[in-house]
Every structure is written in structure tokens, then in C-alpha cells.
Amino acid sequence: MKSVLSILKVFCTLLVVSVFIDFIKRLHKIFYYLFNGGERSLVFNMQIPDNWPDGVYNFLSITSLILIIYMVLLTVDFRQVIFNFSKNEVFTEENSNQLRRVGRGGIIYGIIMFLFYVLLGVLINKPSPGYDLGHLIGGAVNQVLSVFVMALFVQFISFIVGKGNVLQEENDLTI
Fold this sequence. Notes:
By secondary structure, the chain is mainly alpha-helical. Helix content is about 80%, strand content about 0%. It has helices spanning about 1-35, 55-85, 95-125, 130-175. It is elongated and about 75 Å long.
């Protein structure tokens, strides 16, 4: 179990670092565009049309950066839980609350990303009702489905850790 937790600690640390590096890359691209002009980078995996105002592009870029920061914070919370697990502090209320917060945060992140994918897709592509709109929504679901699945899994784990905490407290009181 210790080796699995050690690997998970390394994985979580690498995940935090890689998301932070992605944040720095996007920040660099935004500043480069603001000061030097040139081609706009992808925002929410979509190319913002050049005929859209710079204010809209800047708002969407800053929103994507805020969402990346939010994911870094959620990943740091998850990393803290893994470190608690490695110290044999598994069934604690703190771990349950942190996992619940990470799960809820993942659901919120997924909903926001879904809304941005759909709204930007409708505004950029102007799909016809029917197949095009269904294809757009299906693509948006495809983009965020893994986030929802992971968030629900983390919520389930937080429930188990919370119940384990109650059972452990009852067991500690039993003579």
C-alpha cells in the first residue's frame, strides 16, 4: 500500500506541476497577443474569430486562466488528501471534507466548461437546429464527461471516508 501511495503522491505532484506549467504557457500566449498582436490562441479548444472584439477574447482568456487556477487549487487539495493517506490518516473528517470539496469543485468545473463549449460553439459556428446543435452538444459532453465521472468518483470516495470516520470513532469508543 505504501508503494501505491508513493506513486500516487508523485503522480499528484506531477499533475499540479503540469497544470501550473499549462497556466504559465497560456498566460504567456495571452500577454504575447496583448503586447505584440498576432494570431489568437485557442480558448476552450476553440479558435475565437478575428472579427470578434479583443475585449471578448481577453475575457474568455482570463476566464480560462481562472478555471486553470481553480483546477490547480482542487488538485492541491486532492494531493493533500493523498499525503494524509500516506501518514495513515485515512478515515478523518478533514479528508472527507477535502474530497467532497474536490468532487463538488470538479462538478462545478465541468458545468462551467460544458456551458462555455456549448455557448461558444453556438456563437462561433451558428449551427442549425437539429443535427448540428446535437453534434455540438455531443462534442461538449465528450469534452467534459471524464471530469464528471472523476468528480462523482471522488464524491463517492468522500462518502466512504466519511462513513469510515464515523465507524472508526464508534470503534474507538467501544471497550
